Amino acid sequence: MLNQEGLFSAAAPLAARMRPSSVDEIVGQTSLLVEGSPLRELARAVADPAKASRISVILWGPPGTGKTTIAQVIARSSGRKFVELSAITAGVKEVREVMTAAARDREIYGASTLLFLDEIHRFSKAQQDALLPGVESGAVTLIAATTENPSFSVIGPLLSRSLLLTLESLSSADIETLLERALTAPHGLASVFTIAPDAREQIVLMADGDARRALTILDAAAGHAAALEAKTIGLENVSAAMDRALVRYDRQGDQHYDVISAFIKSVRGSDADAAIHYLARMLEAGEDPRFIARRLIILAAEDIGLADPAALGMATAAADAVALIGMPEGRIPLAEATIYLALAAKSNSAYIAINAAIADVQAGLSGAIPKHLRSSNFAGAKAQGAGVGYSYPHDDARAVVEQTYLTGKTANRRYYQPKEVGAERALVERWQKLRDIIRSKKSKG
Protein backbone atom coordinates (compact mmCIF):
# COMPACT_ATOMS: atom_id res chain seq x y z
CA MET A 1 0.00 0.00 0.00
CA LEU A 2 1.27 3.46 -0.90
CA ASN A 3 1.52 5.88 1.96
CA GLN A 4 0.04 9.37 1.93
CA GLU A 5 3.33 10.95 0.94
CA GLY A 6 3.70 8.57 -2.00
CA LEU A 7 0.25 9.37 -3.23
CA PHE A 8 0.11 13.12 -2.89
CA SER A 9 3.67 14.38 -3.14
CA ALA A 10 4.05 13.38 -6.78
CA ALA A 11 4.83 16.27 -9.10
CA ALA A 12 2.03 15.38 -11.52
CA PRO A 13 -1.58 15.77 -10.38
CA LEU A 14 -3.97 12.85 -10.72
CA ALA A 15 -5.49 14.16 -13.97
CA ALA A 16 -2.04 14.22 -15.59
CA ARG A 17 -1.06 10.79 -14.24
CA MET A 18 -4.25 9.26 -15.64
CA ARG A 19 -3.79 10.42 -19.22
CA PRO A 20 -4.36 7.46 -21.59
CA SER A 21 -1.39 5.96 -23.39
CA SER A 22 -3.36 4.52 -26.31
CA VAL A 23 -6.48 5.28 -28.28
CA ASP A 24 -8.28 2.33 -26.71
CA GLU A 25 -7.82 3.84 -23.25
CA ILE A 26 -9.57 7.09 -24.16
CA VAL A 27 -12.95 7.42 -22.45
CA GLY A 28 -15.73 9.13 -24.39
CA GLN A 29 -15.79 10.45 -27.98
CA THR A 30 -16.53 6.93 -29.22
CA SER A 31 -18.06 8.17 -32.48
CA LEU A 32 -14.79 9.93 -33.37
CA LEU A 33 -12.57 7.00 -32.46
CA VAL A 34 -14.21 4.09 -34.27
CA GLU A 35 -12.08 1.90 -36.54
CA GLY A 36 -11.35 3.64 -39.81
CA SER A 37 -12.05 7.12 -38.44
CA PRO A 38 -9.63 9.96 -39.29
CA LEU A 39 -8.31 10.05 -35.71
CA ARG A 40 -7.68 6.29 -35.75
CA GLU A 41 -5.82 6.62 -39.03
CA LEU A 42 -3.71 9.44 -37.64
CA ALA A 43 -2.82 7.28 -34.65
CA ARG A 44 -1.87 4.27 -36.76
CA ALA A 45 1.85 3.50 -36.76
CA VAL A 46 3.27 2.85 -40.24
CA ALA A 47 6.74 1.71 -41.25
CA ASP A 48 6.98 4.23 -44.07
CA PRO A 49 6.36 7.79 -42.79
CA ALA A 50 5.46 8.86 -46.33
CA LYS A 51 2.37 6.64 -46.12
CA ALA A 52 1.18 8.05 -42.80
CA SER A 53 -2.01 10.08 -42.70
CA ARG A 54 -1.20 13.80 -42.82
CA ILE A 55 -4.67 15.20 -42.44
CA SER A 56 -4.83 18.15 -40.05
CA VAL A 57 -7.74 18.39 -37.64
CA ILE A 58 -9.37 21.01 -35.46
CA LEU A 59 -10.87 19.64 -32.26
CA TRP A 60 -13.73 21.78 -31.01
CA GLY A 61 -15.31 21.05 -27.66
CA PRO A 62 -15.76 22.06 -24.02
CA PRO A 63 -12.86 21.85 -21.53
CA GLY A 64 -11.98 18.39 -20.26
CA THR A 65 -13.29 16.43 -23.24
CA GLY A 66 -9.91 15.03 -24.29
CA LYS A 67 -8.51 17.40 -26.91
CA THR A 68 -4.96 17.44 -25.53
CA THR A 69 -5.13 13.75 -24.65
CA ILE A 70 -6.14 12.79 -28.18
CA ALA A 71 -3.25 14.77 -29.68
CA GLN A 72 -0.70 13.21 -27.32
CA VAL A 73 -2.00 9.70 -27.89
CA ILE A 74 -1.90 10.13 -31.67
CA ALA A 75 1.69 11.36 -31.54
CA ARG A 76 2.75 8.52 -29.23
CA SER A 77 0.92 5.77 -31.13
CA SER A 78 2.01 6.88 -34.58
CA GLY A 79 5.63 7.54 -33.67
CA ARG A 80 5.47 11.16 -34.73
CA LYS A 81 7.58 13.86 -33.15
CA PHE A 82 5.26 15.78 -30.81
CA VAL A 83 5.49 19.56 -30.50
CA GLU A 84 3.04 21.50 -28.37
CA LEU A 85 2.40 25.24 -28.54
CA SER A 86 -0.03 27.36 -26.60
CA ALA A 87 -1.70 30.27 -28.34
CA ILE A 88 -1.40 32.18 -25.08
CA THR A 89 2.42 32.23 -25.13
CA ALA A 90 3.48 31.43 -28.71
CA GLY A 91 3.78 34.03 -31.46
CA VAL A 92 4.50 34.04 -35.18
CA LYS A 93 8.23 33.60 -34.51
CA GLU A 94 7.70 30.38 -32.53
CA VAL A 95 5.30 29.00 -35.14
CA ARG A 96 7.76 29.62 -37.97
CA GLU A 97 10.55 27.99 -35.99
CA VAL A 98 8.45 24.86 -35.58
CA MET A 99 7.60 24.85 -39.29
CA THR A 100 11.25 25.23 -40.28
CA ALA A 101 12.39 22.46 -37.94
CA ALA A 102 9.60 20.15 -39.13
CA ALA A 103 10.50 20.68 -42.78
CA ARG A 104 14.17 19.99 -41.99
CA ASP A 105 13.39 16.81 -40.02
CA ARG A 106 11.17 15.56 -42.81
CA GLU A 107 13.81 16.20 -45.50
CA ILE A 108 16.85 14.88 -43.62
CA TYR A 109 15.43 12.15 -41.39
CA GLY A 110 12.07 11.36 -42.95
CA ALA A 111 10.50 12.21 -39.59
CA SER A 112 6.92 13.37 -39.25
CA THR A 113 5.98 16.16 -36.83
CA LEU A 114 2.66 16.55 -35.08
CA LEU A 115 2.02 20.09 -33.89
CA PHE A 116 -0.58 20.44 -31.18
CA LEU A 117 -1.79 24.00 -30.88
CA ASP A 118 -3.95 24.64 -27.85
CA GLU A 119 -6.50 27.47 -27.79
CA ILE A 120 -6.09 28.34 -31.45
CA HIS A 121 -8.98 30.81 -31.13
CA ARG A 122 -6.55 33.10 -29.29
CA PHE A 123 -4.25 33.26 -32.32
CA SER A 124 -4.47 36.38 -34.46
CA LYS A 125 -4.99 36.14 -38.22
CA ALA A 126 -1.26 36.71 -38.79
CA GLN A 127 -0.37 33.93 -36.38
CA GLN A 128 -2.80 31.54 -38.05
CA ASP A 129 -1.47 32.53 -41.47
CA ALA A 130 1.97 31.37 -40.33
CA LEU A 131 0.61 27.83 -39.95
CA LEU A 132 -0.55 27.57 -43.55
CA PRO A 133 2.76 26.76 -45.34
CA GLY A 134 3.54 23.83 -43.05
CA VAL A 135 0.01 22.46 -43.19
CA GLU A 136 -0.17 22.93 -46.96
CA SER A 137 3.13 21.15 -47.61
CA GLY A 138 2.48 18.38 -45.10
CA ALA A 139 5.60 19.27 -43.14
CA VAL A 140 3.44 19.15 -40.03
CA THR A 141 0.25 17.44 -39.09
CA LEU A 142 -1.69 20.04 -37.15
CA ILE A 143 -4.06 19.18 -34.34
CA ALA A 144 -5.56 22.40 -33.06
CA ALA A 145 -7.87 22.64 -30.07
CA THR A 146 -10.48 25.26 -29.32
CA THR A 147 -13.39 25.76 -26.97
CA GLU A 148 -14.93 28.35 -29.30
CA ASN A 149 -16.77 27.95 -32.58
CA PRO A 150 -14.00 27.68 -35.24
CA SER A 151 -16.29 29.27 -37.81
CA PHE A 152 -15.79 32.56 -35.97
CA SER A 153 -12.28 32.13 -34.59
CA VAL A 154 -10.27 30.24 -37.25
CA ILE A 155 -9.36 31.73 -40.62
CA GLY A 156 -11.04 30.28 -43.70
CA PRO A 157 -7.88 28.97 -45.44
CA LEU A 158 -6.93 26.98 -42.33
CA LEU A 159 -10.46 25.64 -41.89
CA SER A 160 -10.56 24.49 -45.52
CA ARG A 161 -7.29 22.58 -45.06
CA SER A 162 -8.40 20.87 -41.86
CA LEU A 163 -11.03 18.43 -40.72
CA LEU A 164 -13.31 19.91 -38.06
CA LEU A 165 -14.28 17.40 -35.36
CA THR A 166 -16.70 18.27 -32.56
CA LEU A 167 -16.12 16.73 -29.14
CA GLU A 168 -18.98 16.33 -26.68
CA SER A 169 -18.98 16.60 -22.91
CA LEU A 170 -18.47 13.21 -21.30
CA SER A 171 -21.53 11.32 -20.09
CA SER A 172 -22.10 10.46 -16.44
CA ALA A 173 -21.16 6.86 -17.24
CA ASP A 174 -17.90 8.05 -18.82
CA ILE A 175 -17.03 10.09 -15.72
CA GLU A 176 -17.79 7.11 -13.46
CA THR A 177 -15.47 4.96 -15.57
CA LEU A 178 -12.69 7.52 -15.19
CA LEU A 179 -13.20 7.71 -11.42
CA GLU A 180 -13.10 3.94 -11.01
CA ARG A 181 -9.97 3.70 -13.13
CA ALA A 182 -8.26 6.47 -11.14
CA LEU A 183 -9.16 4.84 -7.81
CA THR A 184 -7.60 1.49 -8.75
CA ALA A 185 -4.78 2.23 -11.20
CA PRO A 186 -1.23 1.84 -9.78
CA HIS A 187 -0.33 5.26 -11.20
CA GLY A 188 -3.58 6.66 -9.80
CA LEU A 189 -4.77 6.19 -6.22
CA ALA A 190 -3.66 2.55 -6.22
CA SER A 191 -6.76 1.17 -4.43
CA VAL A 192 -5.83 2.98 -1.21
CA PHE A 193 -9.36 4.41 -1.02
CA THR A 194 -12.89 3.33 -1.66
CA ILE A 195 -15.54 5.93 -2.41
CA ALA A 196 -19.02 6.28 -0.99
CA PRO A 197 -21.83 6.18 -3.57
CA ASP A 198 -23.10 9.66 -2.69
CA ALA A 199 -19.57 11.06 -2.96
CA ARG A 200 -19.13 9.46 -6.36
CA GLU A 201 -22.48 10.86 -7.48
CA GLN A 202 -21.54 14.33 -6.26
CA ILE A 203 -18.25 14.30 -8.18
CA VAL A 204 -20.05 13.21 -11.34
CA LEU A 205 -22.54 16.04 -10.86
CA MET A 206 -19.88 18.66 -10.18
CA ALA A 207 -17.71 17.49 -13.08
CA ASP A 208 -20.44 18.44 -15.56
CA GLY A 209 -18.93 16.25 -18.29
CA ASP A 210 -15.36 17.50 -17.73
CA ALA A 211 -12.88 14.66 -17.20
CA ARG A 212 -10.10 16.86 -15.88
CA ARG A 213 -12.42 18.50 -13.37
CA ALA A 214 -13.66 15.11 -12.15
CA LEU A 215 -10.14 13.84 -11.52
CA THR A 216 -9.08 17.11 -9.91
CA ILE A 217 -11.99 16.92 -7.46
CA LEU A 218 -11.24 13.27 -6.72
CA ASP A 219 -7.58 14.11 -6.15
CA ALA A 220 -8.44 16.88 -3.69
CA ALA A 221 -11.07 14.78 -1.93
CA ALA A 222 -8.61 11.90 -1.53
CA GLY A 223 -6.08 14.31 -0.07
CA HIS A 224 -8.64 15.51 2.46
CA ALA A 225 -9.57 11.92 3.38
CA ALA A 226 -5.91 10.98 3.79
CA ALA A 227 -5.32 13.94 6.09
CA LEU A 228 -8.09 12.54 8.32
CA GLU A 229 -6.63 9.02 7.97
CA ALA A 230 -9.86 7.84 6.38
CA LYS A 231 -9.96 4.94 3.92
CA THR A 232 -13.26 5.90 2.32
CA ILE A 233 -13.78 9.11 0.38
CA GLY A 234 -17.08 10.45 1.63
CA LEU A 235 -19.36 13.28 0.72
CA GLU A 236 -17.79 15.45 3.42
CA ASN A 237 -14.39 15.03 1.76
CA VAL A 238 -15.77 16.07 -1.62
CA SER A 239 -17.54 19.04 -0.07
CA ALA A 240 -14.37 20.13 1.72
CA ALA A 241 -12.37 19.81 -1.48
CA MET A 242 -14.81 21.91 -3.47
CA ASP A 243 -17.42 23.95 -1.69
CA ARG A 244 -19.11 24.92 -4.94
CA ALA A 245 -19.25 23.58 -8.45
CA LEU A 246 -17.09 25.46 -10.89
CA VAL A 247 -19.58 26.78 -13.39
CA ARG A 248 -18.30 26.23 -16.92
CA TYR A 249 -18.61 29.64 -18.46
CA ASP A 250 -16.33 31.81 -20.56
CA ARG A 251 -17.50 35.42 -20.56
CA GLN A 252 -15.68 35.98 -23.85
CA GLY A 253 -16.50 32.68 -25.52
CA ASP A 254 -19.23 30.32 -26.65
CA GLN A 255 -20.59 29.67 -23.17
CA HIS A 256 -21.26 33.38 -22.79
CA TYR A 257 -23.50 33.31 -25.84
CA ASP A 258 -24.97 29.86 -25.21
CA VAL A 259 -26.09 30.54 -21.64
CA ILE A 260 -27.56 33.98 -22.32
CA SER A 261 -29.31 32.44 -25.35
CA ALA A 262 -30.77 29.66 -23.19
CA PHE A 263 -31.79 32.27 -20.60
CA ILE A 264 -33.64 34.48 -23.08
CA LYS A 265 -35.31 31.52 -24.79
CA SER A 266 -36.46 30.16 -21.43
CA VAL A 267 -38.04 33.51 -20.49
CA ARG A 268 -39.62 33.78 -23.95
CA GLY A 269 -40.87 30.21 -23.55
CA SER A 270 -42.45 31.06 -20.16
CA ASP A 271 -40.36 28.52 -18.20
CA ALA A 272 -39.60 30.44 -15.01
CA ASP A 273 -37.62 27.57 -13.46
CA ALA A 274 -35.28 27.22 -16.42
CA ALA A 275 -34.88 31.00 -16.65
CA ILE A 276 -33.88 31.28 -12.99
CA HIS A 277 -31.42 28.40 -13.40
CA TYR A 278 -29.63 30.10 -16.29
CA LEU A 279 -29.69 33.41 -14.42
CA ALA A 280 -27.96 31.70 -11.50
CA ARG A 281 -25.34 30.18 -13.81
CA MET A 282 -24.50 33.56 -15.23
CA LEU A 283 -24.35 35.28 -11.86
CA GLU A 284 -22.20 32.54 -10.31
CA ALA A 285 -19.81 32.77 -13.25
CA GLY A 286 -19.38 36.51 -12.73
CA GLU A 287 -21.38 37.75 -15.71
CA ASP A 288 -21.96 41.50 -15.72
CA PRO A 289 -25.47 41.93 -14.21
CA ARG A 290 -25.94 45.07 -16.31
CA PHE A 291 -25.61 42.95 -19.44
CA ILE A 292 -28.33 40.61 -18.16
CA ALA A 293 -30.57 43.57 -17.27
CA ARG A 294 -30.16 45.07 -20.74
CA ARG A 295 -31.17 41.80 -22.35
CA LEU A 296 -34.26 41.63 -20.15
CA ILE A 297 -35.27 45.14 -21.29
CA ILE A 298 -34.95 44.09 -24.92
CA LEU A 299 -36.94 40.93 -24.29
CA ALA A 300 -39.70 42.84 -22.49
CA ALA A 301 -40.20 45.06 -25.54
CA GLU A 302 -39.68 42.40 -28.19
CA ASP A 303 -41.39 39.31 -26.80
CA ILE A 304 -43.96 40.64 -24.31
CA GLY A 305 -44.74 44.06 -25.68
CA LEU A 306 -48.35 45.16 -25.57
CA ALA A 307 -49.56 41.87 -24.11
CA ASP A 308 -48.27 43.23 -20.78
CA PRO A 309 -47.02 46.84 -21.05
CA ALA A 310 -45.90 46.73 -17.41
CA ALA A 311 -43.16 44.25 -18.35
CA LEU A 312 -40.94 46.90 -19.91
CA GLY A 313 -41.25 49.02 -16.79
CA MET A 314 -40.40 46.02 -14.63
CA ALA A 315 -37.27 45.23 -16.68
CA THR A 316 -36.15 48.87 -16.70
CA ALA A 317 -36.70 49.13 -12.96
CA ALA A 318 -34.58 46.00 -12.42
CA ALA A 319 -31.77 47.52 -14.48
CA ASP A 320 -31.96 50.73 -12.43
CA ALA A 321 -31.97 48.74 -9.19
CA VAL A 322 -28.89 46.75 -10.22
CA ALA A 323 -27.05 49.96 -11.09
CA LEU A 324 -28.09 51.51 -7.77
CA ILE A 325 -27.41 48.68 -5.31
CA GLY A 326 -24.88 46.54 -7.16
CA MET A 327 -24.17 42.91 -6.38
CA PRO A 328 -24.83 40.55 -4.71
CA GLU A 329 -28.15 42.16 -3.76
CA GLY A 330 -28.79 42.98 -7.41
CA ARG A 331 -29.53 39.33 -7.98
CA ILE A 332 -32.92 39.81 -6.26
CA PRO A 333 -34.47 42.42 -8.61
CA LEU A 334 -32.99 40.48 -11.54
CA ALA A 335 -34.72 37.33 -10.30
CA GLU A 336 -37.97 39.23 -9.74
CA ALA A 337 -37.90 40.66 -13.25
CA THR A 338 -36.93 37.29 -14.74
CA ILE A 339 -39.86 35.49 -13.14
CA TYR A 340 -42.33 38.27 -13.99
CA LEU A 341 -41.24 38.35 -17.63
CA ALA A 342 -41.28 34.56 -17.90
CA LEU A 343 -44.88 34.39 -16.63
CA ALA A 344 -46.14 37.41 -18.57
CA ALA A 345 -48.37 37.06 -21.62
CA LYS A 346 -46.28 37.19 -24.79
CA SER A 347 -46.73 39.22 -27.96
CA ASN A 348 -44.13 40.28 -30.50
CA SER A 349 -46.57 42.41 -32.51
CA ALA A 350 -44.63 45.65 -31.95
CA TYR A 351 -41.39 43.92 -32.98
CA ILE A 352 -43.02 42.59 -36.14
CA ALA A 353 -44.62 45.95 -36.93
CA ILE A 354 -41.42 48.00 -36.80
CA ASN A 355 -39.46 45.40 -38.77
CA ALA A 356 -42.11 45.31 -41.49
CA ALA A 357 -42.20 49.10 -41.69
CA ILE A 358 -38.39 49.33 -41.88
CA ALA A 359 -38.39 46.70 -44.64
CA ASP A 360 -40.82 48.83 -46.67
CA VAL A 361 -38.72 51.95 -46.15
CA GLN A 362 -35.58 50.11 -47.19
CA ALA A 363 -37.40 48.82 -50.27
CA GLY A 364 -38.24 52.39 -51.30
CA LEU A 365 -41.94 52.17 -50.46
CA SER A 366 -42.04 55.64 -48.91
CA GLY A 367 -44.93 57.59 -50.36
CA ALA A 368 -45.07 61.36 -50.39
CA ILE A 369 -46.17 62.93 -47.12
CA PRO A 370 -49.74 64.26 -47.64
CA LYS A 371 -49.79 68.06 -47.78
CA HIS A 372 -52.26 68.36 -44.91
CA LEU A 373 -49.78 66.53 -42.60
CA ARG A 374 -46.82 68.72 -43.49
CA SER A 375 -45.46 71.36 -41.13
CA SER A 376 -47.12 74.75 -41.51
CA ASN A 377 -44.90 76.61 -39.05
CA PHE A 378 -43.13 78.79 -41.59
CA ALA A 379 -43.94 81.80 -43.76
CA GLY A 380 -45.66 80.89 -47.00
CA ALA A 381 -46.73 77.44 -45.78
CA LYS A 382 -50.37 77.89 -46.66
CA ALA A 383 -49.48 79.11 -50.13
CA GLN A 384 -47.76 75.76 -50.66
CA GLY A 385 -50.71 73.88 -49.23
CA ALA A 386 -48.81 72.71 -46.16
CA GLY A 387 -51.19 71.91 -43.33
CA VAL A 388 -54.23 72.90 -45.38
CA GLY A 389 -57.15 70.55 -44.85
CA TYR A 390 -55.78 68.89 -41.73
CA SER A 391 -58.55 67.58 -39.45
CA TYR A 392 -57.80 67.96 -35.73
CA PRO A 393 -58.88 64.66 -34.06
CA HIS A 394 -59.86 66.34 -30.78
CA ASP A 395 -62.54 68.29 -32.57
CA ASP A 396 -64.41 65.01 -32.91
CA ALA A 397 -66.18 63.52 -29.88
CA ARG A 398 -64.43 60.22 -30.54
CA ALA A 399 -60.99 61.90 -30.81
CA VAL A 400 -60.46 60.16 -34.14
CA VAL A 401 -61.39 61.29 -37.66
CA GLU A 402 -61.33 60.05 -41.20
CA GLN A 403 -58.02 61.21 -42.64
CA THR A 404 -55.23 60.10 -44.97
CA TYR A 405 -51.98 59.50 -43.13
CA LEU A 406 -50.18 57.27 -45.66
CA THR A 407 -50.10 57.46 -49.45
CA GLY A 408 -48.95 55.36 -52.35
CA LYS A 409 -48.15 51.67 -51.89
CA THR A 410 -48.15 52.01 -48.11
CA ALA A 411 -51.62 53.57 -47.93
CA ASN A 412 -53.34 50.44 -46.72
CA ARG A 413 -50.40 48.49 -45.32
CA ARG A 414 -51.07 46.63 -42.06
CA TYR A 415 -47.93 46.76 -39.93
CA TYR A 416 -49.46 46.40 -36.51
CA GLN A 417 -51.53 43.26 -36.08
CA PRO A 418 -52.43 42.79 -32.41
CA LYS A 419 -52.60 39.37 -30.82
CA GLU A 420 -55.48 38.18 -28.70
CA VAL A 421 -53.34 37.61 -25.62
CA GLY A 422 -53.08 39.40 -22.30
CA ALA A 423 -53.76 43.10 -22.24
CA GLU A 424 -53.37 43.29 -26.01
CA ARG A 425 -56.61 41.37 -26.46
CA ALA A 426 -58.50 44.62 -25.83
CA LEU A 427 -56.60 46.31 -28.66
CA VAL A 428 -57.72 43.87 -31.34
CA GLU A 429 -61.28 45.22 -31.62
CA ARG A 430 -60.26 48.80 -30.80
CA TRP A 431 -57.60 48.95 -33.53
CA GLN A 432 -60.02 47.57 -36.11
CA LYS A 433 -62.64 50.20 -35.22
CA LEU A 434 -60.04 52.97 -35.38
CA ARG A 435 -58.84 51.80 -38.79
CA ASP A 436 -62.38 51.72 -40.08
CA ILE A 437 -62.94 55.35 -39.03
CA ILE A 438 -59.54 56.65 -40.21
CA ARG A 439 -59.69 54.92 -43.60
CA SER A 440 -63.45 55.09 -43.83
CA LYS A 441 -65.28 52.62 -46.04
CA LYS A 442 -62.86 53.23 -48.87
CA SER A 443 -60.21 51.10 -47.16
CA LYS A 444 -62.42 48.00 -47.22
CA GLY A 445 -62.65 45.65 -50.09
Structure description:
- There is one protein chain.
- The protein has a 5-stranded parallel beta sheet. It has a two-stranded parallel sheet with strand order 6-7.
- It has 20 helices and 7 strands.
- The model is unreliable at 1-6 (pLDDT under 50).
- Helix 11 (197-207) runs antiparallel to helix 12 (211-227) and helix 14 (254-268) packs parallel to helix 16.
- With 445 residues, the chain is α/β, with parallel strands linked by helices.
- 48% of the residues lie in helices and 7% in strands.
Distance between the termini: 92 Å
Q: What's the CATH class label of the largest domain? A: Alpha Beta
Q: Give the number of helices.
A: 20
As laid out across the biggest beta sheet, the strand order is 2-3-4-1-5
- Secondary-structure arrangement, i.e. CATH architecture of the largest domain: 3-Layer(aba) Sandwich
Rounded mean pLDDT score: 87
Which homologous superfamily in CATH is the superfamily of the largest domain?
P-loop containing nucleotide triphosphate hydrolases
Radius of gyration: 32 Å
Residue fraction in strands:
5-15%
State the share of residues found in helices, binned by percent.
40-55%
> Which word captures the global form?
elongated
**How is the biggest beta sheet arranged?**
5 strands, parallel
Give the SSE order as H and E letters.
HHHEHEHEHHEHHEHEHHEHHHHHHHH
Q: Would you identify the regions where 5 or more consecutive residues have pLDDT less than 50?
A: 1-6
Q: Structural class, from secondary structure content?
A: alpha/beta
As for the number of domains, it is 4
